[in-house]
Design brief:
mainly alpha, 2 domains, 2 strands, about 5% strand, elongated
Length: about 140
């Protein structure tokens, strides 16, 4: 079998295609979550905490000299990245929690026991039973 045929067989297998679709949807979902955090959550949170922005916090190790930029430890940017991660993780957690709740409700609705209609024989036997009860009372 030629390499081209082997590659074609590999590339069109269901798992590879499913994985590719998952990656594409995951990337699109990542954009949605980033927009949600960056455009909705972060501004609201920034307003609540008084517009604090950690990205400007630095420790200068060596001042700038001419064309050489300053050497700094940008710990504020690191703090902001951690804060962004926590917000994104919480947003994803809440989304997944909501989806799981919907799935549980759907599964519970599907599992709800339905009483099957009695067969003709069962109906007939019930009628006979009822008639016998009435005869024994009289």
């Amino acid at each position: 079998m030629s390499i081209l045929k082997e590659f074609k067989a590999f590339a069109v297998k269901g798992n590879v295609v499913d994985m590719a679709v998952g990656i594409i949807i995951g990337a699109a979902f990542g954009k949605i979550v980033s927009s949600f955090v960056g455009d909705i959550i972060t501004p609201a949170l920034g307003m609540l905490i008084g517009g604090v922005d950690f990205t400007d916090l630095v420790i200068t190790l060596k001042a700038a000299e001419g064309d050489i930029p300053a050497v700094v430890i940008a710990y504020g940017s690191f703090i902001q990245t951690i804060l962004d991660f926590v917000i994104i993780a919480f947003a994803i957690f809440m989304g997944i929690k909501g989806i799981n709740r919907l799935k549980r409700e759907e599964a519970a609705a599907e599992e709800a026991p339905t009483t099957p209609e009695p067969s003709k024989e069962e109906v007939l036997l019930s009628e006979i039973r009822d008639l016998l009860k009435q005869q024994s009372k009289s």
